[in-house]
Amino acid sequence: MNRTFIVNTNPIAPIASWEISPCAKTPDTEGGYEVEAFETMAEARSAVDRLGGTTFWGVYSRLSDEAIMADLGPPVIHLKDFDSYDEAVRFVQLFNGVNDDD
Q: Residue 29 falls within a domain, yes or no?
């Protein structure tokens, strides 16, 4: 599984977004906005800081097109790319710096 961090570089409202996909690490267009793709959490965090963007996380299922957990804040985690809902949520938590003792 290739986990790619997508940063919407729209100068008016930059938004950081996690996309789980085989995305090339080059600028691309998503929904009409320019985006930048990164492969690691460190690169992603750095890009968010650099752009001064918003990070709004959500857990989303492409299978049902239903927003399952929109209050985590704008990157979108696709459940079908994880073995479980818990794994998807844990991925978001790790990015946001939430750590357990494990």
A: yes
Residue 46 β-bridge partners: none
Which residues constitute the domain of residue 11? 3-95
Alpha-carbon distance of 50 to 27, in angstroms, equals 16
At 33-54, the pLDDT tens digits run 455 666 665 666 666 666 655 4
For residue 95, the surrounding DSSP H or E stretch is: helix 85-95
Domains in the chain: how many in total? Answer: 1
CB-CB contact of 62 with 81 (8 Å): no
Q: How far apart are CA 94 and CA 76, in angstroms?
A: 14
